[in-house]
# Entry
Amino acid sequence: MSDQSSIFVIDSMAYIFRAFYGIRANMHSKDGIPTNALFGFINSFENIIRDFNPSHVVAVFDAGSETFRNEMYSEYKANRKECPEELKPQFDLVKEYIALRGIPLLIQKGFEADDIIATVAKQATGSHIKTVICSGDKDLMQLVNDDTLICHTHKNNLMIDAEKVVEIMGVRPDQIVDYLSICG
# Structure
C-alpha cells in the first residue's frame, strides 16, 4: 500500500458464514450459546489487524433477509436455505465484539452487505482513498479498480487487483456482472 489514505472494509457476513461452516467444533458459551462462528470471525479479524495494521477499518453486515431486490423480484434468493438456528445468536455476538473493538459497523435496512461495500468503495474511489475489501466473494471483484483491491485473507492474504481478476476469473472487473449472469 502506498502513502495514500486507505480503508479496510470487512465483509463480516462472508467471514461469519465461512467460520460457521468451517469450524464444526462443538463450541458454546457457559450459557449454551454456540460460538464457533464468533471464534472464527475474531481469529480472521485479528489476523487482518496483525498482518496489515490498517489505520481505518469498517465492518459491514446485512440488515436482514428483505432487501429492495425482494420488492423488484419476489423470487430473489427464494431457494436459499434458512439461516441455521445455531448461527443466528452469533451475529449479535460478532456485532458486540466489533463494538467493543471500537470498529464502525455499517448496516442499512433494505440492503445487503455487498451493496454497502460497493457504496464505500465507490465513495472512497471518488475521494482518492484506497479501499481494501477483505472478502472471498467473487461478486465483489466487479469493484476492483486502481483504487480498490480485494484481499482474500483465506488465501495467504492474496491481493486481487484488476490483473489478478483476469487471471482468476478470465474476465476484467467491468465484465464480472455479465460473466456471473451467464454462468448463473
About this structure: Residues 36-52 form the longest helix (17 residues).
